[in-house]
Specification:
Blueprint (H helix, E strand, L loop, with lengths): L12 H11 L4 H8 L3 H8 L7 H11 L3 H17 L2 H16 L1
Helix pairs in contact: 2-3, 4-5
Amino acid sequence: MATVKFGYTPTHPGEVLKDEIEYRKISQRKLAEQMGISYKVLNDLLNGRRSLTATTAMMFEAALDVPADSLMRLQLKYNMQEASNDRTFMERLNKIRQYAALL
């Protein structure tokens, strides 16, 4: 099986959401209150310090009408790129592949 590589840098879904709320001129505090989450959680999501979950993606869809499945795809691609950049993890995968080749 080939190693997964991307020809681009995936976008954290928070970047897309941050652009959207800035474009709409919605304050982060107001949006956090509307969604029922803390300002810190929202700010961490928008700045890529926290991963989007299915429930938060659905909350953003309800609040901003941005499709939750599209946000989750962005998060998945971002997570996979981050994992592939982890040298220790990639070495572990190579050992697993070597073992699997012997089976």
